[in-house]
Amino acid sequence: MSAAVINIAWAVVFALVGGAAGGFLLIWFSSRIPAVFDKITPDMDEGKEIIRGNRAVADYFGRIVSAAILGVSIIIAAAVLGGLLAALHY
């Protein structure tokens, strides 16, 4: 078997493992980010404010959480890409 085929096989393995780990981490971080945000603002219950119809809190909370999820996704994508490059750079 040639070295190129072995490198491609390792790249596929790294992509699958990295993708699975990245998906797990993204789901885990997505569930933890609102709890961290609640600790940062202890005097305000964002859930109650959103239920009461406070649109400003809903918009701010949504933007902060979505920005954090996007940031985590970019970091995970960079890690998966690094694994692929390492596998292909034999």
List the helices and strands and how they pair.
Blueprint: H1 3-40, H2 46-51, H3 55-88
Helix pairs in contact: 1-3
List keywords for this structure.
90 residues, 3 helices, mainly alpha, rod-shaped, single chain
Q: What kind of assembly state do the chains in view correspond to?
A: single chain
Strand content: under 5%
Characterize the biggest β-sheet: none
Tell me the overall shape. rod-shaped
> Low-confidence parts lasting 5 or more residues at pLDDT below 50?
none
Can you tell me the number of structural domains? 1
Helix content: over 70%
Q: How many helical elements?
A: 3
Radius of gyration, whole Å: 19 Å
Number of strands: 0
Class from secondary-structure proportions: mainly alpha
Distance between the termini: 15 Å
What does the average pLDDT come to? Answer: 84
Listing every helix as H and every strand as E from the N terminus to the C terminus, the arrangement reads HHH
Short description:
The protein is an all-alpha fold. The protein has 3 helices and no strands.
Description:
By secondary structure, this protein is an all-alpha fold. The chain has one domain. It has 3 helices and no strands. The chain has helices at residues 3-40, 46-51, 55-88.
